[in-house]
Amino acid sequence: MSLWLCLRFPQLPLQCQTLSEAQPMVVLARQRVLRANDCAASLGILEGMAAATVRALAGSEPLQLLARDQEAEQHCLQQLCCWAYGITPTLYPWRGDCLQLEVGGCLALFRSLENLLQTVHCGIQLRGYRVEAGLAPTPKAAWLLSFGTQELAAGGADGWQEQLNSLPLTLLDDFPREVAALRRAGLQRLGDILALPESALGRRCGKPLVHWLRQMLGRETDLQPDYHPPAHFSDQHWFGYEVKTTAELLPAVQQLLQALCGFLRQAQLQAEEIEWQLIAVDRQVQCLQVRSSSRHSDWENWYQLTRLQLDRLQLRTGIEGLALECRQLLTGRSASIDLFSPHNQREPMQALLDRLRNRLGLQAILTIGCRDEHLPELALHVGSEAAAALPAGQPCARRPFWLLPEPQPIHREQGQLHWQGLLQLVGGPERIEDNWWQEPVSRDYYIARGSRGQYYWLFHDRLRRQWYIHGLFA
User: Fold this and answer.
1) Which of 74, 137, 350, 446 would bridge with 428, disulfide CB 3.0–4.6 Å?
2) Packing angle, helices 198-205 and 207-217, rounded to 10
3) In whole angstroms, what is the distance from residue 399 CA to residue 264 CA?
4) Residue 301: closest CA among 344, 338, 231, 353
5) Considering the entire predicted model, what is its pTM?
6) Alpha helices in 16-170 (DSSP H)
7) For the segment 293-302, what is each residue's pLDDT rounded down to a tens digit?
8) What pLDDT does residue 150 have?
């Protein structure tokens, strides 16, 4: 049996623009009050009032009038969808201010309905949104129950039909003419019309209302387009007050990273780079890029890297909001893990490099590797980014990483090679011929052992008939 959780955000037109409760704030639509915060409500301002009446009631009180921004509402709802996608993959936005979540299929993941509801409650509370919730076997019933007075119970949707019966008919605002006719006939609550035969109700009110009620009761399938995750992730947190230190940002950083990584795991994606946007009280934005040398979806790793960046950051002014952007979502890679290897108990090398880069800067750490080139001086790679891995079977393993800046000539005496002592050839030759189109190169490379046991990499230039030392083995 399916179980739907409806999250309705009645103050979304206001809270998508501000979460502040410091002064009365009102959202206007067609010069009428659409939403008002608690400070405005305490002055007697109600929904539907004219703007002139609102100004008269406010008197000398500081009052902020905001125009409705439907684009901001939809953007906010999409961010909530990204967060909710980390809870369940089956969801969709509805009616412009609701999220419908099918949670029956993910109860095993959370181990109980109580744990799931607690996760949802904490996520919404941290974002500061006002929410009304309903739980029922169908989406429409869950939406109606979000207007009820009973709180969600861990026992599930038991008794949902009895709760529906007590709700007023005025909630069916998609059918205003039909509801008005039913109320004139003395029917006031949903239970009154649900007790009527469907045929009689259809003749009086029409098939669309009967079809809607059948979907609400689960007698007909309620097909809705599923939510598809976007090609990028975006989420934000508004504090509702001025943040003056980076330490105050950390709880919001953790919350946004957990939402990001929950989204990535559900979509089977990973990320290599994220961007933080610190929104100042004057709406100026300060950006902060955090990079990782390997793609992953581990929020704790991203949290540690972000903290290293924030420790070096000086806030230019007070911060009001924090946004997280991840524009490049990559296909997830599963790492091979050996449960019995002692190396897994140590910190991975890539994690150490990431921490050093984010603390010291990207150019402070250089990596050494091999490139697919014939000439050794071109095959050695030293830079801030790792070189592409060589195909299997390349002889780079028999070459030293440390090459001299320029090959040094080797003295030859009585058929013996000398460089800081007598050299003895112990490996080779490896012939390398290249660059024939510009300056031909033909070399035979050898491994030699010195008089003190050290090993060198040297070559014989077949064109110049001269010996050179090119590298040193560790």
Assistant:
1) 446
2) 140
3) 41
4) 353
5) 0.67
6) 38-41, 51-58, 70-84, 107-110, 113-127, 139-145, 160-165
7) 788 888 998 9
8) 65
